[in-house]
Amino acid sequence: MKKPLPKLGLIFFLFFYSFTTFAAEKGVISGKVVEEVGGLPVPSAVISVYLDNSEQPVITSATDEDGRFSIKNLKPGNYSIRVSFVGYAPLKVNGITLTEKDYDKNLGALKLSSEQNSLQEVTITVQKPPIEFGADGVTYNVGSTLLAEGSTATDVLKNVPMIQVDIDGNATIAGKRNTRIFIDGKPSDYMTSNIADLLNVLPSDAIDKIEVLTNPPSKYSGDGEGIINIVMKKGFKVGFNGNVGIAGGLQGNGNTNANASYRGKSYALNGSAAYRYNVSKGDSHNFRENFFPDTTFYYDQYGGYKNHNNGGNFRLGLDWTISPKQSLRLSTNYNLNHTNSNSSTDLHYLNENYIESRLRNQLNTGNGNSNNFVFNTDYDLQTDTSGGKISLGLNFNTNKNIDFRSYSTTYAQPSTLNPSLQQNNNHTGNRGLNVTLDYEKSIFKKRDRIEAGLAFSYRKNDNNLLIENFNFASQQFLRNNKLSNQFLYNENIGAAYASYNYRNVGWGVKTGVRAELTDVAFDLSTGENYNVKPYLSVFPNLSLNRFYRKRYNIGATYSIRINRPRENTLNPQVNNVDTLNISYGNPNLSPAYTHQFDINFGAFGQKWSFNPRLSYSTSQGVIERYRTVTLIPGSNTARSENTYDNVGTNRALSLILIGNYRPTNKISANGNFSVIQSNYKSQLNSSLNRDGISFRAAVGLSMQLPFKTAFESNLNYANNANAQGRNKGSMTSNFSARKVFFANRLNLRVTINDILGNRTNTFFNEGQNFRVENYSTNNTQNFTFSLNYRFTKIKVNKIPPPPPAKPQ
C-alpha cells in the first residue's frame, strides 16, 4: 500500500499546479459594445469567443450595463469573437492573437449597426503590427503596410527589416552569405532559373506575410544560412471576396492583378492572376588598372543598357476539409517572363601615360523567354484528440529558359582590326520533386510539442549552350566547338529530422537535429564526368527564450548550416561575351559549413518596442566569386577571369538594432540598423586576407490621416564588404500616400520611388595585379499611381424572428 503524499508536498503540488495552470490560461479579451449611431452602450449583447478553425465557441458571455465585456482565462492562440444583439447586424472580429508576452487584447469600441438593410454579419480584422519579433527571426505582416499595396514581392522585400535587395532583384538577409527563398514553406529558389523573375511579378496583394528566419527550425532544409519564407494569403473569409488592381508609372512600368476566394462549408477556393511590364535602363563606367612587372596600362569602359520586361503569374488553390480529422490542400503556380535587351559599350585602351591606343565598340542584343510551373499538395490527418497530426506533402516543379544573345564588336581605333559577330543560344531546363512526411504531437497537457519527419528531394538541370561565330568570308555562322557545351546536373538529397519544443512559465526551448545525405553527379557533353561521393551532413539546432513581465524577452540560438555548390557555380561553361572579362564555374567546389550563434533581446512598451540582436558566424570553405587578371602573351592586353572558389574562412560579427515607436494609434515610426564585421582568411591568395565592415540602415514612418487618407515612407542605405572589395550603395527611398473611397472598397495610391535621385552603385575590387572601380546608375526614380478595388459578398445571416407569444 502506497504512503499518502505528505501534506507539505501536497500543498506545494497544488500551489505549483494552480500557478502553472493560471499562467498558461491568463489571456484576456476585452472591449466595449456601442451603437454605431450615437455611441450609446449596448448592454446584454452576446459575446461568443471562437478558436480559429472552430465552429463552436469556447466561451460565451454578455456585456454589462455599460456595454463592457472582459473574457478571461484564455489560453495562448488565435481567436475571433462574434457580437450579436436583437435588431442589430452581427459583428465578427478576426485576427485576435494571444501570446505569452501579449496576452491582454483590448478591442476598444465595437460598433453595432441598427440599419435594417445591414442585417448581415459584418466582419472586421484586428490590425496586426507591421513587424513581429521572435528568437528565430522577424515576421513582416504585408497587409499592415500600404507601401505593399499594388506592388510586387520584390518591392515589398526592400522594406523588410534585415533584408537587402540588389539592383537585379536578388534578396539576401543582412550578414548571411547564402539566403534561400521559400514560398509557403516550400523551396522556390531552385524552381526557376532566376528567382528574381518570379519575385518581380508575384503580386504583393496575394502575400500575407514574410518570415525572415535567421535560425530556421530543423523541419527546414539545412541549406542556406537563412531563409526568407513568403506566406501567401489563403482567402478564408466566408463567401466570395477579393480585389482587382491596376498600377502605372512614369518610367513606362505597369502592372495589373486580381485575387479572389470563395469559401463554402467544407472547402475554400482561392486564385490570383497578375501581369507586369517594366522598362529598365542605366549607364555604367568601369575603370581597371592592370599592373605587371614590365608594363602598366588601363581599361576605361563606358556603357549603357535598356531592357523591356513583361511577365505574368497565375495561382490557384483548393483547401478541402474532408472530415473533422482530415484536410487536403492543392495549389498550382505558373509564371512566365519575356525580356528584350539592348546594350552598348565603348572600351578605351590606355597606356601607362593614359594615351589611348585602341577603341573597341560593342553592341549587344538579347531576347529571353522563361516559364515555370509548380504543383503542391498537402494532406493532414489528425491522429488523436491531443493534437497529434500526420502531414504528407508533395511538390513538383519544372521550368524552361531560352536565352538568345548577339554580340557585335568593331574597332574605331585602329580601324585595321577585324570586326567580330557572335551568337549565344542557351536553353536551360529544370525539374524537381520534393516529398515530405511529418508527424507532430502535443504532450504534457498540450504544453510541449514533438515533431519528426522524413524528406526527399530530386533535382535535374540541363544547360545546353550553343555558340556560333560569323565567318565574314563565307557569310555564315559556324559552330564554336570549343565553347559550345551541354551541362547535365543531378542531385538527390534524403533527410530525417526530429525536434522538441518545450514551454513553461516564461520559458521557451526549441531543440532539434536534422541529417541529410547528398548524392550529386554532373557531366559535360565534351566527355568530362564528375561524381561527387555521397556525403552525410548533420545540423543541430537550439533556441532558448525567456520572457519577463510581458515586457521583456531574451533569447539565444545556435545552428549549423550548409552552402552546397550547385549548377550555377559548378558549370565550367565559359562566358566570353566580353573577351577581356570571361567567367565560368568551378566543378571542383566543396560544400561550405557555417556555425551560427545569435543572441537577441526584446523590450516592449505600450507605445514602443526595441529588439537588438548580436550574431556571430564562422564559415569554412566559403564559396565566393573570385577574380584573377593575367597578361595575354605577346600583347599589351590583360584578361580578367571570374570564377568561384572555396576562398577560405570567414568570421562575421553582426549587430542588428530594430525599433518601433507609436506615439498614437495613428502614427508609427520604425527603424533598423546593421553593422557587420567580416574577417577573411585565405590560403588561395594573400589579397583575400582582409577585414571589412558592412553597414545597412533603414527608417520608416506611417500615419493615418483624416478623411480616410494615409501616408508611409521608407529610407534605406547599404554598404557591403566582400572577399575582394566593397559594394557601396546609395540611399533609396519610397514615399506613398493613399486615399480610400466607397466604404473602404476603393483606394487610390501614389508612390514616389527614390525622390533623391536614381539609384547608383559603386563597386571596388582589387587583386595582386589589378584594381577595378565600377560606377553604375539605374532608372529607379519613378512616380507610380495605382487603383485597387476590394469586393466582398458574404452570406446573409438573417436574425430569426422571435417565437410567437403564448396565448393568455
Can you offer a commentary on this structure?
The protein is mainly beta and 808 residues long. It folds into two domains: 103 residues, Sandwich (Immunoglobulin-like); 656 residues, TonB-dependent receptor, beta-barrel domain (Maltoporin, Chain A). The strands form six sheets. The chain has a 26-stranded antiparallel β-sheet that branches. Strands 9-10-15-16-13-14 form a six-stranded mixed β-sheet, with no helix packed on it. The N terminus and C terminus are likely disordered.
CATH architecture of the largest domain: Beta Barrel
Question: Beta-strand level of the residues, as a percent range?
Answer: over 45%
Question: CATH top level of the largest domain?
Answer: Mainly Beta
* Averaged pLDDT: 82
Number of strands: 46
The biggest sheet amounts to: 26 strands, antiparallel
N/C terminus separation? 67 Å
Helicity level, as a percent range? Answer: under 10%
Count of folded domains: 2
The class by helix and strand makeup works out as: mainly beta
